[in-house]
Amino acid sequence: MSNECLTYTKVLTISSKKRFELIHITDEVIKAVRESGIKNGLVLVFVPHATAAVIANEYEHNIVQDYIEWVRRYVPQEGGWRHNMIDDNAHAHIASAIIGPSRTFPIVNGEVIRGTWQEIMVFELDGPRYRRKVVIQVVGCK
Ligand code: ZN
User: Fold this and answer.
1) Which helix (H) or strand (E) holds 66?
2) Cα 74 to middle of ligand 1, angstroms
């Protein structure tokens, strides 16, 4: 039995079509873990962007609209934000700061451990954007 330990990094480029959008990437994360060959470790899913976030939750039409509604309700675009004097996306920075730019998942015996209702999504908060990067870093042992 091999016990090689390594780090495998994959960068996805995705695009968004709306101001707010949830982009489902669970399959890409599982694929990256398979490619890495790592059987036990962690996978980090990170967006190197200040106006996007990563979540792990249910990907169902109504709840997806509710995530967006939560942002609209609690971090309104027209919030009198100071940053809007130089840009028009303070709401996106604030929501990204609160929700966070990454999530980490355990890998056990080659499987990414998730709950039944935990799909992995990039939360676009300031789209549409032609190029959004998603860094998937797998760390562990074969
Ligand atoms: Zn800005």
Assistant:
1) helix 61-74
2) 18
Taking the centre of ligand 1 as the mean of its atom positions, its distance from the CA of residue 32, in whole angstroms, is 31
pTM of full prediction above 0.90? yes
Q: Which CATH homologous superfamily contains domain 5-141?
A: YjbQ-like (2.60.120.460)
> Which among 126, 129, 115, 114 is positioned nearest to 43, based on CA atoms?
114
Can you tell me the distance from the alpha carbon of 85 to that of 132, in angstroms, rounded to the nearest whole number? Answer: 24
Residue closest to 28 by CA, chosen among 102, 112, 109: 112
- For 91-127, write each residue's pLDDT tens digit: 999 999 999 999 999 999 999 999 999 999 999 999 9
| Residue 34 CA to ligand 1 centre (angstroms) | 36
Distance CA 4, CA 6 (A): 7
Task: 72-81: list long-range contacts, CB under 8 Å, 24+ apart.
Answer: 72/20
Residue owning tokens 């130089």: 86
Domain range annotation of the chain: 5-141
